[in-house]
Amino acid sequence: MKVYINGKFYSKEDAKVSVFDHGLLYGDGVFEGIRSYSRLVFKLKEHIDRLFESAHAIMLDIPLNKEQLIKATIQTLKENKLNDAYIRMIVTRGEGDLGLDPRKCKGNSTVIIITDKIALYSKELYRKGMEIITVATMRNSHEALNPQMKCLNYLNNIMAKIEAVQLGYEEALMLNDQGYVAECTGDNIFIVNKGELYTPPEIMGVLRGVTRDTVLEIAKKNKIPTHEHVFTRHELYISDECFLTGTAAEIIPVVMVDGRVIGSGKPGKITLSLMNKFKELTKKEGVRY
Ligand code: PMP
User: Fold this and answer.
1) What are residue 156's DSSP bridge partners?
2) Does ligand 1 come within 6 angstroms of the Cβ of 34?
3) Which of 10, 145, 242, 277 has the most other CB atoms within 10 Å of its CB?
């Protein structure tokens, strides 16, 4: 495996950053998770745009422009001879001192691109649907650390994940500080009610997922009404269908939430149709390498 760090390739063993990098010391940095299918990088532009938005929000200069970053990504994929890959793009504040002042890292930001395989959940889970549970850890308030930024500090999500795993579940449902449904630890959430699609708006404390946007797009094209709308756990419990979306998870059906069976207890018709259409899209859309 070859890892890209600041324009050079390193073997996995030698791919290292300084212990003084503020990405490590403070989670000061941003990242993206991207995927390629049969040598097509899916929604690369959208991911790069979001990376630059996250970086802008934390006043982090990315030493490459968007085009250069796209080139570096393609180069890394080619270097690793991967047809299907999960791409992790990271930009850290870089090396500084032990204080958290980012000015000390000026000009040191580090760009890392890792390409590898990923299989988040078993095939069976996609067939049968997953069971999730609401956890006590609430999603970061947008006034504290806005979930719309994909920053390196993922402890909020990790705390929720730990709770779910402790309780024997693979994924946690996170509510925001007002008790409305926000998202899961690494995925957005959708429900289907009377043939219409609902997902919480960004302001509820969710990352605007690229997969979420893609699902909304597919639904609109197929005349399924979509709503970016606030909802509580009650609407979720009484929904006809539920599923999660994310680059790594793609679209995964949810059949039980907090012990309540969702709909028929099996992946729903609209969910299955969206899963198929999403798969089709990944086969034909993307940046070729
Ligand atoms: N929410 C969170 C907290 C995430 O980490 C992710 C994965 N990046 C998502 C939602 C889904 O976003 P995307 O579809 O862009 O992968």
Assistant:
1) none
2) no
3) 242
> Residue 119: what pLDDT?
84
Structure tokens, 15 = 């791919």
pLDDT per residue as tens digits for the range 161-213: 999 999 999 999 999 999 999 999 999 999 999 999 999 999 999 999 999 99
Structural domains of the chain, ranges and CATH numbers in brackets: 2-116 (3.30.470.10), 123-282 (3.20.10.10)
Q: Which two tokens stand for residue 57?
A: 């929000």
Inter-residue contact 131 to 255 (CB < 8 Å): yes
**Residue 120 pLDDT > 90:** no
- Residue 102 Rama label (left phi>0; alpha psi -120 to 50; beta): alpha
In sequence order, the 6+-apart residues with CB closer than 8 A to the CB of 222 are 273, 277
Q: Which of 174, 207, 251 to mutate to test the pocket of ligand 1 (most atoms within 8 A of CB)?
A: 207
Res 3 pLDDT > 90: yes
To the query of whether residue 284 is one of the catalytic residues in this protein, the response is no
**Relative orientation angle of helices 44-57 and 66-79, to the nearest 10 degrees:** 120
Which atom of ligand 1 approaches the CA of 210 most closely? Answer: 15
